[in-house]
Write a structure and sequence with these properties.
alpha+beta; C8orf32 fold; 2 domains; 10 helices; about 25% strand; elongated
């Protein structure tokens, strides 16, 4: 199997996939069945009309392995789409011929790891179907600069966009074959979540009734560095010993830029019944986190579930405002796996408890 030559821009993206251990993952039957229930795994499937049941099962296994490795709670639609696109870009090479090794099927892209445009598009749809992301497979018509080309239309946050995953491939075999303009370094924003008109401006033509309309491009269009800088940023949990008023506990942390961030509700739970107890209320209507230091914390479940090595995706906290007893503050924070994480010392300063370090343990003393 040929190895794709990666240009510098692609190398930046490889950071997202630090270890492609997904090739060696073992998928259980339940994971495969779950994927098959959400997709089109039958004779004549869009993933490859000629694929056998055995090959479709291998596609389902590959999709399940991708989900297990790269999709976690708290990811946005854009992050899920980006993860699927980056995965195919970094694991699939352009095939010299569509007629060999299922290159025009999802099996070629996801199992054999070589494909042409049809295989990329069919594989991307298989990944999106499993993630619950709306996705269409689109074929160029005879008026197109390349009548054989295929791509996808995908839904992100309720809006539809064109994405051409195969255009991210920079293999030597691909250059100059498709009739689509390429620069020496691909400007990915020309092919990632763009409008019908922007995509058509490159000479592509298709039956517009075959997929939802894409009236506008995503915010990355013509902003290459914004695209590069907004790669999916995976982080992994650790555990930290913490002693609260002499009582040892263990909490889950995420290290970001050499600072440990802790779950706000874990700290509220640990301080319950002390002079520095506080309640946490999420105001969904107004996008506010309310902290009430005059009320004991009401547990919601899941507090102190410390686990090391749990993968999450780093997002800025979704709260527009963080208020302690009505006063607005702006501590550094991230939303990871649908929970808000803050620096413990920042919370201590806002609530009024002391935070120290004895070389092995975090020491918290209430006042």
């Amino acid at each position: 199997m040929k190895k794709k030559k990666l240009v510098s821009t692609v190398l930046i993206m490889v950071i997202v996939f630090q270890c492609l251990s997904i090739f060696f993952c073992t998928v259980n039957a339940a994971d495969r069945d779950s994927v098959k229930q959400s997709g089109e795994y039958y004779s004549g499937s869009i993933y490859g009309p000629a694929l056998s049941n055995s090959e479709l099962n291998e596609v389902a296994d590959a999709v399940a392995a991708f989900l297990n490795e790269y999709i976690v709670d708290g990811m946005t639609d854009q992050q899920r789409v980006r993860a699927a696109c980056d995965y195919l870009m970094n694991t699939c090479s352009y095939a010299a011929s569509w007629a060999r090794n299922g290159a025009n099927t999802a099996w070629g892209a996801l199992v054999y790891h070589e494909a042409q445009c049809s295989g990329y598009a069919r594989a991307f749809k298989a990944l999106c179907d499993a993630m619950g992301i709306g996705c269409y497979y689109v074929h160029a018509d005879e008026n197109s600069i390349n009548p054989s080309h295929q791509w996808n239309v995908v839904c992100v946050d309720g809006n539809w966009y064109i994405i051409d995953v195969q255009a991210f491939d920079k293999s030597d075999e691909l250059i100059g074959q498709l009739g689509i303009p390429y620069s020496s370094i691909i400007d990915y924003t020309k092919y990632y979540l763009v409008s019908d008109e922007e995509y058509a401006s490159m000479g592509l033509s298709w039956d517009r009734s075959s997929a939802p309309s894409c009236p506008s491009s995503y915010s990355y269009y013509e902003d290459y560095y914004a695209y590069i800088n907004d790669a999916v940023n995976y982080v992994y949990s650790g555990t930290q010993n913490i002693i609260v008023n002499g009582v040892p506990q263990t909490i889950e942390t995420y290290n970001v830029n050499d600072s440990n961030y802790v779950k706000l509700r874990d700290i509220a739970y640990l301080l319950n019944g002390t002079k520095n107890n506080f309640n946490v209320v999420w105001d969904d209507n107004n996008n506010i986190i309310w902290i009430d230091t005059k009320t004991q914390y009401t547990p919601v479940g899941g507090e102190l579930g410390a686990e090391s090595g749990k993968k999450g995706v780093l997002n800025p906290t979704s709260a527009a405002s963080f208020r302690v007893d009505g006063a607005e503050h702006t501590p550094d924070s991230y939303n990871i796996r649908n929970n808000n994480y803050y620096k413990l010392r920042d919370i201590g300063e806002l609530i009024g408890f002391d935070v120290d370090w004895d070389g092995s343990n975090v020491i918290v003393k209430t006042k």
